[in-house]
Structures are given as structure tokens and as C-alpha cells.
Amino acid sequence: MENQLREQILKLKKDKNAVILAHYYAPAEAQSIADHVGDSFYLAKVAKNSAADIIVFCGVSFMGESAKILNPDKKVLMPDLTADCPMAHMVAEGKIKEMRDRYDDLAVVCYINSTAELKRQSDVCVTSSGAIKIVKALPNKNIFFIPDRNLGKFVAAQVPEKNIIINDGCCPIHAAITKEQLLAQKREHPTAPILIHPECEPELLEMSDYIGSTAEIIDYVSKSPLDEFIVCTEDGVDYQLITDNPEKRFYYPEPRPCCVDMKLNTLGNILSVLEKEDNEVIVDETVVREARRPLDRMLELGR
Ligand code: 13P
Ligand code: SF4
Fold this sequence. Notes:
Blueprint: H1 2-15, E1 18-23, H2 28-33, E2 36-38, H3 40-49, E3 54-58, H4 61-70, E4 75-77, H5 95-102, E5 106-111, H6 116-120, E6 124-126, H7 131-137, E7 142-146, H8 149-158, E8 163-166, H9 179-188, E9 194-196, H10 202-206, E10 210-211, H11 214-223, E11 228-232, H12 237-244, E12 249-251, H13 267-276, H14 285-301
Parallel strand pairs: 1-2, 1-3, 3-4, 5-6, 5-7, 7-8, 9-10, 9-11, 11-12
Bound molecules: 1,3-dihydroxyacetonephosphate and iron/sulfur cluster.
């Protein structure tokens, strides 16, 4: 059954000149059929440069929207249009304007995990992999970092020369991981380093050995001579970690962190959008124009 689905997807993909992109948190079945798998920064770059007629984005809505904004002439489809990132909406109405009124020299730095509407009101976007570099490179002294408070605090600690005002949003999956869950794994596997995503709470980052984006964590494991790791992020990364390092062992906080929205990207849904070409990501033209600037700036500064 699964093989049949795969064959149908591959055939339609070829016939329609489509490309499938998948985030590391998408289910293993989606990652295994994708043309490109990566973190948010890598996938934004691939989407911008894609020559395919159709981009099928196995991620959540801010990723599909970003792909459309960066490559507006392409048809961007999502296997399930309801796949959304709750954090992407966590900036109170009017908050950006309030901050701009309060500070003359303010840059609004917007984590890519945000709606297109928030992006268009921002000066630059960042992902978890390039946030520090980009914030450091900005000429502004005052930074309003939206929407993630944990990534914001992580960046602020690395860039003390700036006045970083942090919005109070968070990823419900990463922010729910507790110190006790991590300590329990450390007791079981005392020699395994803790690798953590910066969306986790600061007290967890403090007890970790390496902080990075999904791609950076995967890269760290591949380059490490060690053979076991405590991985503190959404458990979709397990597929790539095991594929690249079959001899190594990975442990996660229990229960394993799981982003239910990401898991909506099933093979059945991928086939369905390729067949019907429905679930198209539509972004208003003005929003595309205005939200493109901070995304382009991110790709430029994050290179
Ligand atoms: P990355 O930028 O590490 O891919 O993370 C995206 C994300 O949604 C984290 O929760
Ligand atoms: Fe959003 Fe968190 Fe899911 Fe990432 S893991 S897409 S930040 S809800």
C-alpha cells in the first residue's frame, strides 16, 4: 500500500514538474519522499531558487507562506492547509506599532515562525540558525524580537551590546519540555551530551552542551566522535539522525516532544494535493511585496 502511494507520488511529481520540500519535523514518510529536507533557513533558500512549477511544502503554514512570498509565480501546495504553528500568531495586535512609537532607532526582528502579516511589519526575518549573526549585523541599538521569547532571550544573551526587547510568545511543544524530563535522561545516559533547540526554556539551555537549529543539531551529531546523544527538540529529527548515523543512539525527553501540526504531512495528503492541486497557499499581493523585504534581507544577511 505504502509502496503504491510512493510510486503514484513520484510519477505525478515528474509529470507536473513538482518538487517536495519537507522540514525535519515532518513525519518520516514525508521526509523520505522529499526532494529537499532541511531546517527553516535551508528550505526558504530552496523555495526561493526552485525552478519547479509546483512546490509541495511538508511543513506548517508559515513555511508555505514564506515559500510563496519568496517565489510568488510558483504554485505552492500544502498537504494539509490546517497545519499551523501556534507561535506564529503570538504577537498582540498593535504591539509592533507601540514599540516603534516608543523607540526612534528600532529594528523589528521577526523569527520566521510568524504570519506573513507580522513579517510585513518587520525589518528583518531570522531563523534559529542565523539569528545571532543577523541581530549583530543590524545598525540599530534597539531590537524588538518577535514572536519567540526563548529564542529572543538566547539571542539577547549572545548580543549584550544591543537593547533587545522580547515579545512573550513561545512554541508550546518546546516550552513544555521540563528540566526534570531532561535530568531523567541525563541520569540514564550520563555521558551523552544534551543537544537542544533554542526554543526551549533558558534553564534547559543552561544545562545543555550544544544549542542549535534542527540542521545544526543533526550536523553536530554527524561530526561528533561520540555514540549517544540526548536530543531536546521535536522528535521528527530522529529520522534524519538515524539515517545519517545508524550506529549512534538518540534519547529524547519523555514523553517525546511532538508537533501535531507537522505530523499532518502524510503520504496520503501529499498524493491528494498532487492529484487535485488544491490546498494552494494564497497570499495577498501587497502582503507578498511587503513581507518579501524582511525575508530577502534574512537570506542576504544570513548567508
Ligand atoms: P528550525 O529553524 O531549527 O528548522 O526550527 C523550526 C521550528 O519550527 C522549530 O520549532
Ligand atoms: Fe511551531 Fe513549535 Fe511546531 Fe515548530 S515545533 S512548528 S515552533 S509549534
